[in-house]
Every structure is written in structure tokens, then in C-alpha cells.
Amino acid sequence: MSTIAPPREAAAPPPPAGPSLGRRITGRLLGWWRRLTAMRTAIVLLFLLALAAVPGSLLPQRSLSQTNVRRYFADHPDLAPVLDRLYLFDVFSSPWFAAVYLLLFISLIGCVLPRAVEHARALRSAPPPAPRNLLRLPDSGEVATPLAPAAALDVVEEELRVRRFRVVRREGEISAEKGYLKETGNLLFHLSLIALLLGLAGGKLWGYEGSILVTEGDGFCNSFQQYDTYSAGALIDSGDLSPTCVTLEDFKAEYEPDLTASSFTADIRYGGPGEEGRPTTIGVNSPLRTDGDRLYVTGHGFSPTFSVTLPDGTAFTDISVPFLPSDPSTMASEGALKLPDVGGDSRGQLALEGFFAPTGLVQGGVLTSIDPRPLDPKVAVVAYQGYLGLDSGIPQSVYSLDASQIERGRLVEAGAANLSVGDSMTLEDGTVVTFSGVQEFAALQYSHDPGQVWVLVSAIALLTGLLGLLLLRRERVFARSGSAPDGGGTVLTLASLTRGSGESAPRFASLTDDLRAALAARTAPHSEVPPRDS
């Protein structure tokens, strides 16, 4: 007896293959791009950029005032290093601020440019056809007239064109629209914002600025090596700086009765290297502008002048150095004068560290300043002799002594005194130090920003777009003609649709009244049937 083998079950079909790795990566990148270029993301990034700028307005910035940063470090020795590690004294050049700025820039470009293309197409397209049931729109109504349908629509078209609507006539109906400039203003606002960011970025990449303290009678040339502090864009090198030299001839500071500064003016000469230069006067709000460069007065102070006579009779006269203000209300200042070549060897180097008071008062042997004007200049000076450490390879501030040299005993105090103009003190080795006078210095900032005109034009365009966005209305009006129920005349069905406005009913009522009057004038002496409003 033979047996029949059971039929073999058909193999199950293989599961459908999933998307390839490349497609999955592409899809994920597209998803991230859509999220980044969404308007919501751009708004969030704009908010983060404004939030990131808050520390830059609350904390002193190195690019604006190195003195204020040093003072903050002195007042908050524990907190300042932590803030410095977070770049909070260099907010606008920090990596995290640049990251937010770059993401916002990319988001705006990806968000606005497609909308600009779409809007350009919409400008060339005709208003859409009238909806099937006009009476369902928020503002709608009917007007009866004895005119024929074509004649009635002629009156409607004429009235809408007078109101500056763009009108399209179709069979038995009219579509009209105005207010395209509202969307144009919206796009102009966002495109101008992109242009503004581009101008700011260009100014950072191709711009530079340097700060320097210049005493009356001295000058400087536009070179990174001469500035006390400077910052330059990534695409700038020393050969790109304009060849300009500036000499400070005179500086004047005027004060209010309460001794607050009212104005600073500096008489300068400027020109190319080796030129005599042209004279001009600049102030805090009146900078020098030359070929895209600007020279500002950002502050002022005093430079005490000393004369040093060595025991062998060698004299160094009228040596001055800026003393940095420690109290802006009285212009009490601190500074140091370093004379590495006075003694002839490292052990005989001389340094003067002092406190300057424009109007000084000595109480209990302590000098204080009571007035910011130089009415009675005095200086409390301490002389040190020894090794200054200028050739040690360790950078030092030109406005203060290296405290480590004093702590190690390499600089030894050789004398101290409170001096008025003309007074002298004699050191242990017979060296005579004389306080011979005082001069004023100006804190100058030389800036070059190639994007400033671009930023100005972008800001004006941005405000123009914002005004158009806020003041203009987008409005559509539709009209359709139909025969009256009794067979005599025409019934016009009118409707209006206004975007973003809660006051459309009065405008629609005004349009309806004007149309009723125009139809009545065209059909006189016929009477008009009152409208049936929905």
C-alpha cells in the first residue's frame, strides 16, 4: 500500500526590506532642516540671541573697557574668574554667542527665502475665483438693481478700481484684492533682518578696532603694535590697516556745577605717515570719520610728569605715563613709571608707583582727591629700586608694577612722599625725583567697520517693512450677479474677506452704501430695492 506525502507548505514571503541607511540618514537630515527653518525656531533663536546679549550689557566687556574689567576682577576676585571662563567679559565674541547667531542666520534664510519666492509668484497671479456660497463669508449681503447683470458688474468693477483693488472679471462674477504690500512688508522685514545680520557679520570679519591712551603732545599710527588693546576680524591682517597717524595736541574736559563731566573735546592732527596732518576737533559724540574709519574719544585722565636726577648728575626730564582713573567722580588715579635704563644694570633699575589726585587733600598723611579738575595736583609716590623683570619673558602691564618682583625682594622700596607740583624727594642713594607737572591724556578708539552702511540701510528697510506689516490690510471682495426672483433686474451678491482685522464690518458697510449710490445714479429714475443682508 502506497502512501502519498503531504504537500509541502509554501515558504513564507520574505519581509519587505526597510529603507536603506542612506535614505534613513537623508530623511533624518531633512527632518532636522525643516525644524531648523521653521518660523517658530527662528523666533526662539531670536529670543535666545536677545537673552545672550543681556550679560554683555550688565557686565564690563574687554572690547569696550579693559579698565572696568580689571576693576571687576579686583572687586570680585572669586566670581570674576568663573565668569571669565564662560566668556561673559567677551560675550559678543564668545563661541556660544556665535553659535546662536549662526543658527539664527541659517534659520531665517531657510524660512524667509522660500516665502519670498512664493510671494513673488502670488504677486503675478490673479485673485482667486469667488467662493460658491458668498453669503457664508463673515461680511456679505445682497443689493438689487434694475440694471442688467453685465451693467451692474461694470458699476462694481468701477467702484473697486477707484478703491485701488486689483480686479479680475470672470463670467458673471468679480474677484478683487488689495493689500499685497502687507505681505511684502512682512517679507521685507525678514529679508532686512537677514541683511542686517549679514552686515554685522561682515563688520566682524573684515573690521577691526584698537584702543590707546595718548598724552597731550604724543601720537600714534594705525598699527596693531601701537595699540594698548585691539581686536580684528578673522579676515584682517596688519597690512589691511589704513595708513593714518594721529597726534593729540590738546584735550579739554568741561564739568557741570555738580562736578560731573559734561563734554570732552580733543584737538588733533591726522594724516598719512610723514605728513603734517590736518587739524580737527573730535568729541564723545563727534568722532573723526575718514574713508570708513572712525576715531572716538572714549575717556580721559591725567599723566603726571616726573624728572629724575641721578647722583652723578645725569638728568631725565619730563617723563610722563598715564595714570588710570580709579574713581571717576574725583578722577583719583593710580599708575606706575618704569625706568629700566636709569641705573645702568638690573640692580639699579628704578620704578615709581603712585596715586594721583587732581585736587589733592592730605589728611593724616593720606592723600585723597576731592575734585576731578586739576586745581591742586598732588601725587603720593613710592620709589622702588632693583630688578623690574621686563626681560623675563613674562608679560606685564605698563600701568602697574609686577607684584611678584616686590614679593621676591627683587624690587626694594627706596623712598616715599606726598608731592605737589615742583616738590622733590631724595632716595637713599642720592637720586632726586621731582614731580614737575601734569598733562591730560585721551582714551582713543580707532575703528573700521565696512558693514556700517549696509547695517544702516538694512535697519531703515527693516523699519519700513515693519510699518507696512502693521499698518496695511489684506482684503478681498467678491461680487456675483444673478437674476431677480420676479425676473426684473439683477441681484448682486457681495462678500468681503479681510485678513487680520477685527474692523471689517464698517468697511464692508461703507462699500455697500457706495455701490448702492452708484447703482442708483446709473439707473435713475428707477428706484432701488433695499438690500437683504445675511
From TrEMBL:
> Does the entry feature the keyword DNA-binding, yes or no?
no
**Which Pfam families does the UniProt record give?**
ResB
How is the protein disposed in the membrane?
Answer: Multi-pass membrane protein
Check the record and name the InterPro entries matching this protein. Answer: Cyt_c_bgen_Ccs1/CcsB/ResB, ResB-like_domain
Q: Which residues form the ResB-like domain?
A: 39-501
Query: Which chain regions cross the lipid bilayer?
Result: 38-58, 96-117, 187-206, 453-472
* Compartments it resides in: Membrane
Q: Which terms are listed as keywords in the entry?
A: Cytochrome c-type biogenesis, Membrane, Transmembrane, Transmembrane helix
Indicate whether Repeat appears among the record's keywords: no
Know the name of this protein?
Answer: Cytochrome c biogenesis protein ResB
Which source organism does the UniProt entry give? Blastococcus goldschmidtiae
Organism lineage: Bacteria, Bacillati, Actinomycetota, Actinomycetes, Geodermatophilales
